[in-house]
Amino acid sequence: MLVHFRKIIEKTKRALGAFDTFNFEITRGIIEGAVQEKSSIIVQITPKTMEYAGTETITQIIKSIADNQGRGIEIALHLDHGRTLEEVKQCIALGFSSVMIDASNKSFKDNIRLTKEAVKYAHHHNVFVQAELGVVGRGKKDYQKMILSPEEFLTDPDQAQEFVKKTKVDTLAIAIGNVHGHYKMEKGAPKLFLSVLEEIKKKIDIPLVLHGASGIAAGQIKQAINLGIKIINIDTEIRMAFKKALKKSLKDQKKELDPRKILAPTIEEVKKVVRNKIKIFNQ
Length: 283
Ligand SMILES: [Zn+2]
Known about the structure:
Blueprint: H1 5-11, E1 16-20, H2 24-36, E2 41-45, H3 47-53, H4 55-67, E3 75-82, H5 85-93, E4 98-101, H6 108-124, E5 128-133, H7 139-148, H8 157-167, E6 171-174, H9 183-187, H10 194-203, E7 208-210, H11 218-226, E8 229-234, H12 236-252, H13 259-282
Parallel strand pairs: 1-2, 1-8, 2-3, 3-4, 4-5, 5-6, 6-7, 7-8
Helix pairs in contact: 2-4, 2-13, 3-4, 5-6, 6-8, 8-10, 12-13
The protein binds zinc ion.
Zinc ion binds at residues 81, 136, 180, 211-212, 233.
């Protein structure tokens, strides 16, 4: 069942999983996995998925699965890494209860300015806003740079305090050594700077979000939750599960022509990832 973001974040004792979906099969895997764990979740899409599937189409798919297969649990819809006010407005018009405006690649001043604009519009429509401060890098290049000079990426606790005060944002994605993408799955996820998280938590009192959490060891995740992380994004591990299951399915059933039989294992593999993550996040 679809509910407002506020409703599930207020109830969450440990941390909420925020899972990126791309299509029908992955959405079913995410929602059915959460149903099996009897857990609330956030289902989210990025602008690239909006382009790929059509924003209204993918939104209706999520809503429909939430209302049917996901009847027994509470699910919130979120825009992940919104780039523009137009994308934010589009999702709000379709019933999203939370949107991210990611201006973390801009200057501190411009990040504040764009976030403020998004907050003004979203709050007027009773919608939460997530922003990002610091840089959660992406892929091989950022991973290597982050290992050498993490200070270029990490969120500054004083800036975080000023940012939240000025923008009135509802949730904040922070950079504490986390990186997006597949590269770190081969090279080993970087260690989180938990002392930075501790400092940030002392200065701000809104839910903190950990992006790029795929591949980070369960122990580190649990420590981060203890220190104030409230929402954890999982994208890469879902992509990997989908691809692996699809490859195996095609190999195992070379002559199969029924797309349902070919794709069914992808739902099951995504479900497994989601269940495992929820277990870690709830512990
Ligand atoms: Zn992210």
